[in-house]
């Protein structure tokens, strides 16, 4: 499943592709580039705070869902410059697809009869392929739209304009010819999967986010330290 979604992205690529690709993508994560995303982090965090304030009116709430949805909002805004409004609309088609893939990704490990490729491909595997095709079509349509903007001269090179991860990949594609459109698709899908929902040992960004939130709540004495550190970064 991982190879079907990520292709030759950083997580699943063989070493001969991984080494030069990692070197190529490292500048995309320079501190100066990441600093431009702080506004997105702040906006989405404020939305999360408002959501959690409403949750305090309940006797009990699960912390994982809102954190996962906030993570998804951040990912799509920073990776492909697309607003999905996951936290406000958790029943959208895209959200349902990601949730479904997250659940089905573990199915083969838990159901021994799906260890057979034949049975898996006729059951859960078939559903996974349909869901992956929907995600691939969505990302592909965004790539083509971004490509049109780039070729038309609208490169968003205005000073201070934040560039999404996909914009940086397109620059590598057009200016250096070091990435193909398929490479761009694989890398974007890789980061979306790793950060949100295709659980490899369930260590995704949103799961770590939930753990750290719970630890912060329990360790009252560390809150000011965390706040000061984040304030310094901002």
Automatic annotation (TrEMBL):
Species whose genome carries this gene: Trichonephila inaurata madagascariensis
PANTHER family per UniProt: CYTOCHROME P450 4C3-RELATED, CYTOCHROME P450 FAMILY 4
InterPro entries linked to this entry: Cyt_P450 (IPR001128), Cyt_P450_sf (IPR036396), Cytochrome_P450_Monoox (IPR050196)
Similarity comment: family membership: Belongs to the cytochrome P450 family.
Protein name, UniProt field: Cytochrome P450 4V2
GO molecular function annotation: heme binding; iron ion binding; monooxygenase activity; oxidoreductase activity, acting on paired donors, with incorporation or reduction of molecular oxygen
Cofactor section: heme
Matching Pfam families: p450
Keywords: Endoplasmic reticulum, Heme, Iron, Membrane, Metal-binding, Monooxygenase, Oxidoreductase
Location of this chain's protein in the cell: Endoplasmic reticulum membrane
Keyword Aminoacyl-tRNA synthetase: no
Gene Ontology annotations for the cellular component aspect, listed alphabetically: endoplasmic reticulum membrane
């Amino acid at each position: 499943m991982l190879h079907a979604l990520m292709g030759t992205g950083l997580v699943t690529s063989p070493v001969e592709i991984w080494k030069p690709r990692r070197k190529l993508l490292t500048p995309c994560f320079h501190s100066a580039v990441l600093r431009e995303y702080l506004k997105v982090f702040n906006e989405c965090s404020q939305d999360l705070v408002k959501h959690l304030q409403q949750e305090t009116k309940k006797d009990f709430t699960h912390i994982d869902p809102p954190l996962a949805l906030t993570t998804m909002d951040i990912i799509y805004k920073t990776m492909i410059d697309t607003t999905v409004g996951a936290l406000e609309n958790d029943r959208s088609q895209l959200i349902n697809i990601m949730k479904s893939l997250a659940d089905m990704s573990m199915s083969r490990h838990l159901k021994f009869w799906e260890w057979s490729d034949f049975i898996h491909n006729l059951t859960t595997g078939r559903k996974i392929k349909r869901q992956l095709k929907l995600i691939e079509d969505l990302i592909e349509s965004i790539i083509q739209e971004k490509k049109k903007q780039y070729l038309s001269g609208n490169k968003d090179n205005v000073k201070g304009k934040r560039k999404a991860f996909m914009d940086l990949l397109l620059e590598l594609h057009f200016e250096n010819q070091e990435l193909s459109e398929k490479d761009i698709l694989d890398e974007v899908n890789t980061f979306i999967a790793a950060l949100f929902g295709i659980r490899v040992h369930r260590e995704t960004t949103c799961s770590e986010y939930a753990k750290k939130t719970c630890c912060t709540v329990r360790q009252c004495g560390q809150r000011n330290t965390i706040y000061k550190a984040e304030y310094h970064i901002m």
